[in-house]
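Students often ask what a holo structure prediction actually looks like on paper. The answer is less mysterious than it sounds. You provide the chain, you provide the ligand, and the output is a string of discrete structure tokens encoding the 3D arrangement of the protein together with coenzyme A.
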Amino acid sequence: MEHVLSKTILISQTIELIAKKYKLSIEEARNRFYQSDVIEMLDDDETGLYGESALYLLSLYENYFKNKCIETKRLLLRKPRIEDAKPMFDNWANDPEVTKYLTWNPHENIEVTKKIIDSWLEEENNPKTFRFMITLKDSGEPIGSIGVVNYIDGDPEIGYCLSRKYWNHGLMTEACKAFVKHLFNKGFNKVLIKAVVENIGSNRVIEKCGFKFTHQERLEHQSSFKPNPVTVNCYELVK
Ligand SMILES: CC(C)(COP(=O)(O)OP(=O)(O)OC[C@H]1O[C@@H](n2cnc3c(N)ncnc32)[C@H](O)[C@@H]1OP(=O)(O)O)[C@@H](O)C(=O)NCCC(=O)NCCS
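The corresponding structure tokens follow.
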């Protein structure tokens, strides 16, 4: 009981430090802190090492954001977690409009979403895995995802999707530009992206991010789940 109480105090002290240092409201600082993996570290910690002081937790928090997140003006891109299953299912994975031009079909229930996130978590330690949840910086709400979906001759190909209620506010352009920069920083010199010709929004995002159109591909089937033929525009962006 005493341990739980001291942990609670320590967490609120850390949140206050974050708010002060980064000039955020307490609520915003709390959202950001809870989006980091420091809470998980505290929960798993049996040595009491992490619970030493709020300053120590602040340094763990800062380290997390520096190494594992991508921050933009309005967004925080962070690693997926199993708790994302509900917002992911509710916000975009169950929406046929979102999956219309994607290779997969809308998830029938949240169990499907959980399985997908589980498989993502298993791949997290693979150095070729680059996958982020797109969250709103202010509220912490997960609203989409972006990642490397394929490698072609060693070059990463990007894929993304966003909850329909946030479309057309420039959010994916903001996320994609930052993600491309992240991949360039990781040592890649060329990134690729494809969009179905009819997917006007995505082709526009790609254009706004500065990609160059290279060619079109005609696919007999959109994917193994979708038998219809499609034509995709293929683009590249060189560092
Ligand atoms: C494609 C998608 C990611 C775009 O995200 P977004 O945050 O809405 O993108 P942005 O707001 O940054 O840019 C969208 C652009 O497309 C334009 N646009 C969208 N639909 C349009 C339409 N039907 N006609 C003309 N322009 C359209 C918007 O006006 C905007 O351009 P602008 O900034 O010049 O006005 C989002 O619609 C989505 O998740 N779709 C479903 C998943 C998907 O298709 N993923 C891509 C697979 S390649």
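The mean pLDDT is 92.
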